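Input record (Table S2, row 49):
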Amino acid sequence: MVTDPVCRMQIDEKKAAGTSEYKGKTYYFCALSCKTRFDQDPEKFTKQQ
Ligand SMILES: [Zn+2]
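Output record (zinc ion complex):
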């Protein structure tokens, strides 16, 4: 299980709706809307980790 950095939901990475790579790390998203928000401002969401 991984945490969607945008909505903080725990998701199965195999069922993720989308993924993004940022600074060499892969992030998984529950929905494409979360991926879009992350891609617009990845710094904001990775700081919360
Ligand atoms: Zn999400």
